Amino acid sequence: MSASMLPYILLSCLLLSVQAQNCSVREIIRYTNRLLEGSSLSCPCRETAVSSCSCLPIAEPGHELACFVEGTEHMLKNNASSMPIIARLNQAFQTQLDRNLCESLARGHQCQYKTKGNVKEFLNKILRTYQAIHK
Q1: What are the tens digits of pLDDT across the range 6-50?
Q2: What Gene Ontology cellular component terms go with this record (predicted)?
Q3: Integer Cα distance of 68 and 17 in angstroms
Q4: What does the pLDDT read at residue 19?
Q5: The pTM is what?
Q6: What are the DSSP calls for the chain, one per residue?
Q7: Sequence-distant contacts of 1-4: CB under 8 A, at least 24 apart
């Protein structure tokens, strides 16, 4: 390796480490906490019955971002009261997914889940996921 390559390699390593950290963790935790404080989100999720409650995907490990995008898109269509915050979350998740910014949360662009939950369960999943990254 020549000495002229060293600055390039160091810059590449720096950029990769910055990209890996660019998960907007604090911002997502703040917005999610606001949504959790904001309303009565704990009505039961019944996929079979007609209900005013949203049933949102509770992601399998490695598929969180795709499910967070899908869930927040559903919330945008059905929840006018917190629209600006949900839109910001949705945009953050979509950006992270498109740019591979949080690799541990996005093994694919498809949402994979075994269960669905109500809005409160979905938001708690987001919160736990990003708090684990923040540690």
Answers
A1: 555 554 444 444 444 568 899 999 999 999 987 666 677 765 555
A2: extracellular space
A3: 24
A4: 40
A5: 0.78
A6: --GGGHHHHHHHHHHHHHHHH-S-HHHHHHHHHHHHHHS---PPP-SSS--SS--EEEEPTT-HHHHHHHHHHHHHHH--TTHHHHHHHHHHHHHHHHHT-SGGG-S-SS--EEEEE-HHHHHHHHHHHHHHHH-
A7: none
